[in-house]
């Protein structure tokens, strides 16, 4: 059986570089606003309105990018410039978050994944590479398990094969009430790490948008997708080539969660960034994107 020690031995240690220099993403207040203004929306066959951004040439391979808990398509703004030359990006706002509908029901990983299958149908896109971060990685797992015919390759960033449902933050989420104060102790603590590694305008907008999500949605996603979910039984349904990316300083993903994921997905490879945390593609977008590009373009 694979174990955490094996995972560490599986680290892809070869230095990576992009073929040509790419300008880092502009994350000033104006650039953040311009990024958000690019969003489109479509009403899916299940009646949900989903917001998304398309980027890059439609002639390139499609890549579906799925954000983390209480975030939005903006999660991928720091890394977008490194990917658009080679891929057609579909960058979504999951239901309940960003500019998408915020229905009373439902917020399981299966509901999120079904929305994405319907979105691809609306956009007439047959197959994509699927990339998910944190909550989005659980959705990406589920999408690939249920719609393998629509998945070429899979990248799971800051993911787990067990559950994110641990830690004192869960109790704090249960206490949230509307309107959520973006400057509250909880919200500032929630974004503390991100504020320290990102331009202020970007992290400030992320925090205020998260505060605008109804408290009931915060709780519903935590209760239905993050707490006590049993991911392991379906992992053996993933046969797409898979890259697992972690930051060694990520405090949200346990060694057990990493081992379970790597063991459960038999075709998986591992890349660990020793100095990075949970939001690693915000910390070092160039290096993380280089690992993604190498994996997605390999034959």
How would you explain this protein's 3D organization?
With 299 residues, the chain is an alpha/beta fold. It has a single domain, classed as Alpha/Beta hydrolase fold, catalytic domain (Rossmann fold, 3-Layer(aba) Sandwich), CATH 3.40.50.1820. The protein is 39% helix and 15% strand. It contains 14 helices and eight strands. It has an eight-stranded mixed beta sheet, sandwiched between helices. Helix 4 packs across helix 5. It is globular. It starts with a helix and ends with a helix. The N terminus is likely disordered.
Topology:
Elements: H1 4-9, H2 29-37, E1 40-43, E2 49-55, E3 62-66, H3 80-83, E4 88-92, H4 109-122, E5 128-133, H5 135-146, E6 151-157, H6 169-174, H7 185-190, H8 192-197, H9 200-211, H10 215-226, H11 232-235, E7 242-247, H12 255-264, E8 268-273, H13 280-283, H14 285-297
Helix pairs in contact: 4-5
**Structural class given helices, strands, pairing?**
alpha/beta
Number of helices: 14
Q: Give the CA-CA distance, first to last residue.
A: 27 Å
The H-level CATH homologous superfamily, spelled out, is: Alpha/Beta hydrolase fold, catalytic domain
How many individual β-strands?
8
Strand order within the widest beta sheet: 1-2-4-3-5-6-7-8
Order of helices and strands: HHEEEHEHEHEHHHHHHEHEHH
Shape: globular
Find the CATH topology.
Rossmann fold
* Percentage of residues in helical conformation: 25-40%
Main sheet? 8 strands, mixed
Name the CATH architecture. Answer: 3-Layer(aba) Sandwich
**CATH class identity:** Alpha Beta
Radius of gyration: 18 Å
- How confident overall, as mean pLDDT? 90
Q: How many structural domains are formed by the residues?
A: 1
Question: Poorly predicted ranges (pLDDT <50, ≥5 residues)?
Answer: 1-19
**How much beta, percentage-wise?**
15-25%
